[in-house]
Design brief:
The protein contains 12 helices and 8 strands. The chain is α/β, with parallel strands linked by helices and 369 residues long. It folds into 2 domains: 156 residues, Rossmann fold (3-Layer(aba) Sandwich), CATH 3.40.50; 200 residues, Up-down Bundle (Dehydroquinate synthase-like, alpha domain). It has a 6-stranded parallel sheet with strand order 1-8-5-4-2-3, with helices on both faces. A two-stranded antiparallel ribbon has the order 6-7. β6 and β7 form a beta hairpin. Bound molecules: nicotinamide-adenine-dinucleotide and fe (ii) ion. The site of nicotinamide-adenine-dinucleotide (NAD) has 30 residues, from α4, β6, α5 and α9.
Length: 369
């Protein structure tokens, strides 16, 4: 049997924020990061809650790549707030933190009813607003822990591109390459299906049509809107199909070194495409055709796709090698075995089209150096 799950109610476009006034709740807990408070974006959320006289608490301590400590602190505050709605406002880090808080609160205080979870993404990247995944970093052991549970899927996603208008070009580039990696890995996954293909293809079209525009012109709102939709579509796709070893290696790399998740994917994706080409070449060729690249045969289509990814990276100032991501060589080499081993055990590895060995992953990381 093949199945597709899509639990989240998606509200988007103008007036989508009004949804906040329609959610059944008595007390809200807003999870966000310091930028959202400083920029006034958090006020946009609280003012909607205030219009309905919903008391609320603000937890604004989320850092990029949220730590277990932040999640623990948030869980304690959430349990004592006795809220029945969690609103996550921010990039993947804030949304993942909110999801993990809801999850751990269910364990810490099982007597409390499960809160409603509303996610408002402010980056076009992770698709976390519709996925069952929350990535939390264990800073002590230098490892990213992806939690994966149906309970983590937000009930409501509110997509309002105005929240993404202020994303600086470097973050637009990195998060946009995360969208592309989600979509390419979903399309070539061992667990893809007709529905995930449709969503992945549309997300890839949006990335190649609009990512560079959003990067070049921060206030190109059409480009921002399309990237936000593409990000959500890619999230829906990979939530059903799983991902691949670009993500496995990016998680391992990001756990050891503080590299933005999307940047790690951007550097690794061309290597993965070449590595998978025997098993997934036909699919890469289809993608090359869809985005208008040369695709006379599998080899040409695959190379054209690799070149297109490299070109997009280059146009947005993304380096092509790990050594250019402020990673120190001795530390990288010392961590190679650990990273390869973490990548092999990562849950994304099982849906990769080609089964890698430990040595394959070590070599791929070395090649990307
Ligand atoms: N849950 C999932 O399915 C999933 C998938 C992929 C990645 N992740 C995880 O998500 C995290 C990365 O999330 P991200 O890439 O969205 O970045 P992020 O949330 O870490 O944000 C990156 C930076 O951009 C800033 N920022 C966010 N929105 C902004 C805005 N509108 N204007 C200006 N600045 C803004 C943040 O303050 C932060 O400093 C990583 O921990 C990654 O592992 C989760
Ligand atoms: Fe990702």
């Amino acid at each position: 049997m093949t199945q597709f799950r899509g639990k989240t109610k998606i509200c988007y476009g103008r007036y989508a924020l009004d949804t906040l006034e329609e959610l059944p709740c008595t007390r809200a807990f807003v999870v966000t990061d310091p930028f959202m408070v400083k920029s006034g974006f958090a006020d946009q959320i609280t003012s909607h809650l205030e219009r309905r006289n919903i008391p609320h608490c603000l937890f604004s301590h989320v850092e990029p790549d949220p730590s277990l400590e932040t999640v623990k602190r948030g869980t304690v505050e959430f349990v004592s707030a006795r809220a029945d709605l969690i609103v996550a406002l921010g990039g993947g880090s804030a949304i993942d933190t909110a999801k993990a808080i809801a999850f751990f609160a269910g364990r810490a205080a099982p007597q409390l009813p499960r809160p409603l979870l509303a996610a408002i993404p402010t980056t076009s990247g992770t698709g976390s607003e519709v996925t069952a995944i929350s990535v939390v970093t264990d800073k002590t052991h230098g490892v990213k822990i992806p939690l994966n549970d149906e309970l983590l899927i937000p009930d409501v996603a509110i997509l309002d591109a105005r929240f993404t208008r202020t994303v600086p070009p470097s973050v637009t580039a990195a998060t946009g390459m995360d969208v592309l990696t989600h979509a390419v890995e979903a399309y070539t996954s061992r667990e893809n299906n007709a529905f995930t293909d449709m969503l992945a293809v549309q997300a890839i079209r949006y990335v190649f049509s609009f990512l560079f525009k959003a990067y070049q012109q921060m206030e190109d709102m059409q480009a921002r809107e399309m990237m936000l939709l593409g990000s959500c579509m890619a999230g829906m796709a990979f939530n059903n199909s799983g991902l691949g070893i670009t993500h496995s290696m990016a998680h391992a790399l990001g756990g050891q070194f503080h590299i933005p998740h999307g940047l790690a994917n951007a550097v690794l994706l061309p290597h993965t495409i070449r590595f998978n080409s025997f098993d997934a070449g036909v699919r890469y060729r289809e993608l090359a055709r869809i985005i208008g690249l040369p695709h006379a045969n599998v080899e040409e289509g695959t190379s054209a796709l690799v070149e297109a990814v490299l070109r997009l990276n280059e146009n947005m100032g993304i380096p092509t090698r790990i050594r250019d991501l402020k990673v120190e060589e001795t530390a990288f080499r010392a961590a190679l075995d650990t990273m390869a081993s973490h990548a092999l055990d990562d849950m994304c590895t099982k849906s990769n089209p080609r089964r890698p060995s430990l040595a394959d992953l070590r070599l791929l990381l070395e090649q990307a150096w």
